[in-house]
Design brief:
Blueprint: H1 2-25, H2 34-57, H3 62-76, H4 79-92, H5 95-119
Helix pairs in contact: 1-2, 1-3, 2-3, 2-4, 4-5
C-alpha cells in the first residue's frame, strides 16, 4: 500500500507540472506543442538521471525510485519510461526487441489515439 501511495503522490506532482507547462508554453498560434516536447525531453533526462543514480551508487532507496521515477516521471511523461526501456534494450544488445518495441509502440499508440477519437462519435 505504501508503494502505491508513493507512486500516486509522485504521479500527481508530475501530472500537474506537465499540465502547467502545457498551459504556459503550448499556444493556439503555434502548431508545435513546445510544453509537451519540453516535458518529454526533461522527463527523459530526469528518469535517466534518477535511475542512473540509483544504479550507480545506491544513494536512492526503492521508495525514492518509486516516487521520483515511476511516480513523478510517469506522471510528467510516459515517454521517459519508454526511452529508458529502449536504452536498456540497446545496452543489452537486444536490437530486435528494440526495433519491435519502437515500431509497435508508435503504430499501436497512433492507432489507439485515432481509435479513441473514432469511438467518441458514438457517445
Amino acid at each position: 500500500m505504501k508503494q502505491i501511495l508513493l507512486v500516486f503522490i509522485g504521479g500527481g506532482f508530475g501530472s500537474v507540472l506537465r499540465f502547467v507547462l502545457g498551459k504556459v508554453l503550448n499556444n493556439s498560434q503555434s502548431q508545435f506543442p513546445l510544453g509537451t516536447f519540453i516535458a518529454n525531453v526533461l522527463g527523459c533526462l530526469l528518469i535517466g538521471f534518477i535511475l542512473g543514480l540509483a544504479a550507480r551508487n545506491n544513494t536512492l532507496t526503492q521508495n525514492h525510485t518509486l516516487i521520483l521515477a515511476t511516480g513523478f516521471c510517469g506522471g510528467f511523461t510516459t515517454f521517459s519510461t519508454f526511452a529508458y526501456e529502449n536504452h536498456l534494450f540497446l545496452k543489452s544488445g537486444d536490437f530486435s526487441s528494440f526495433a519491435i518495441y519502437i515500431i509497435t509502440s508508435f503504430i499501436v499508440g497512433f492507432l489507439a489515439v485515432f481509435g479513441g477519437m473514432f469511438l467518441t462519435k458514438f457517445i
